[in-house]
Amino acid sequence: MKSEVLMKAENIILQRAGVTVLDIFELHVQAGRILALIGPNGAGKSTLLLMLAGLLKPRQGKIYFQGSPIETRNDLAMLRRNVSVVFQEPLLLNSSVFENVALGLKFRKIPKEEIKSRVQQSLEYFGISHLEKRSARALSGGEAKRVSLARAFAIKPQIILLDEAFNSLDPPSRETIIEDLKRILEDTKTTAVLALHDREETLRLAQDVSVMNSGKIVQTGTTAEIFNQPDSEFVANFVGTETILEGTVKSCSLGNIVVSVYGQEIEAIGDCSIGQKVYCCLRPENVTVSSRVQEKISARNVFEARIIKIIRQGFFNKLILDCGFPLVAYITIPSCEDLGITQGTTVVASFKATSVHIIHREK
């Protein structure tokens, strides 16, 4: 069942120094879900978050919260009471951890005993109860980030907005904070909008994704839809579709198509007409590499390939293959060693027709 819309933006034009920096036709934030805003630097993610928080006023268009437009000062005050923002930098006061986490509650004139209870609960959420009396100046980067998150959750917001919240953290701190944040968002059913640039963080945290470019939202959908069914070459590139091939539809029958690519034929599933120009998009994790053709292989696309380059990426190797067309595959390092794969090795690359995502080309 689809969630209700907690917040939405419609027909937004926002300008700075006369230059349009946001041009948003529509954005829906579903209650109880996590929405990621992704896109390159300068796409407008941070600006959009500030506008959703009521900190920037659009030249045109409206923000709606819980079905009502934000029009008056009272509307804006109500919005700000129900929204928490976590910026890239923790922005902590030169006081104790307790005082920092209590700040938003004091502004809201919450009774002293309730402040104490909420602060302690929020500190417990993020595993920093032992830091309650410590000065914010004496915190590590990871601890400061946890305090800023605890402060944001202490007011029990309807929606929390996070702007590139994990950028400055070392890998271990980032890992644990992401896991804790995901757990807390799920436990509290808090709606969240996160500006992110890391694909792995997006896959781990978000249920919905809006892709931004040049101040516009170019595609919105569930995380699976965005990563597996990009609408354009730009989105495909941004979400890590390493293989994007220009081709022409050679045949089409009952949704099964054959695309001519570099003189080779790739089978795919799609709704196309013969002669149509398309992109064939393939994620590297959907390509299987073996030393020889497997007897019981289910893939309809099987090609002899030569290893052009091997790039180590953490616990995986990224293989750049030449199948008569360029192809990228991921393979575990132990599997690479077991198969005796080195640069120049000839292998067999295979992938299913259902793994090929087709995008229609305009030209």
What would your notes on this structure say?
With 363 residues, the protein is α+β, with helices and mostly antiparallel strands. It has 2 domains: 233 residues, P-loop containing nucleotide triphosphate hydrolases (Rossmann fold, 3-Layer(aba) Sandwich); 120 residues, Beta Barrel (OB fold (Dihydrolipoamide Acetyltransferase, E2P)). It is built from 10 helices and 20 strands. Strands 6-7-8-3-9-10 form a 6-stranded mixed β-sheet, sandwiched between helices. Strand 4 and strand 5 form a beta hairpin. The longest helix has 18 residues. The model has no long low-confidence stretch (mean pLDDT 93).
What brief labels describe this structure?
363 residues, alpha+beta, Rossmann fold, OB fold (Dihydrolipoamide Acetyltransferase, E2P), 2 domains, six-stranded mixed sheet, five-stranded antiparallel sheet, 27% helix
The proportion of residues forming helix, as a percent range, comes to 25-40%
Distance N to C terminus = 39 Å
Q: Could you say which overall geometry the principal axes of the C-alpha atoms support?
A: globular
Which CATH architecture of the largest domain?
Answer: 3-Layer(aba) Sandwich
Order of helices and strands: EEEHEEHEHHHEHEHEEHHEEEEEEEEHEE
Radius of gyration: 24 Å
CATH superfamily annotation of the largest domain: P-loop containing nucleotide triphosphate hydrolases
Number of strands: 20
* Total discrete domains: 2
The share of residues in extended strands comes to 35-45%
Spatial strand order of the main sheet: 6-7-8-3-9-10
The computed structural class is alpha+beta
- Class of the largest domain, according to the CATH hierarchy? Alpha Beta
In CATH terms, what is the fold-level topology of the largest domain?
Rossmann fold
- Helix tally? 10
Low-confidence stretches: none
Largest sheet, in brief, is: 6 strands, mixed
Mean pLDDT: 93
